[in-house]
Predict the structure of Doxx family protein.
Amino acid sequence: MAISIGVVYLWFGFLKFFPEVSPAEGLAKNTIHALTFGFIGDQVSIILLAILEVGIGLLFVLNIFKKTAIYVALIHMACTFTPFLLFVEDSFVAAPFIPTLLGQYIGKNIIIVGALLTLLYTGTSTSRQNGLNKKKGK
């Protein structure tokens, strides 16, 4: 599951390095512009986002710093949902039940969030169980 998430992050992040190739470029620029009150320029913001996404993807694919990757990805995912609040008219035909195509594009990220939480809690519960088993002498 982690490798699948990593591949998606690598793929979508890599596209953002090339102007007007990513279908999410406009949305990403507008969202970052709104969240930073225009402090970060659009061209810089999309490159920073590309670096972040490719970095997350590499961590998952290489299976390093897994917990850190999960937390950073969860924060990133939280940010991907902000257009629902910032750009309601672009996200919904009739809020909150009828999303536009853009809203559907954003909403599908809930699947990634679920997968990230599964990775986080599966790893955590396994660690806890192993720790408990060692304490009990098992």
Notes: Confidence is low (pLDDT under 50) at residues 124-133. DSSP finds eight helices and two strands in the chain. The helical segments are 2-15, 25-35, 42-62, 66-80, 83-86, 88-91, 101-107, 109-135. The chain has one domain: 2-135.
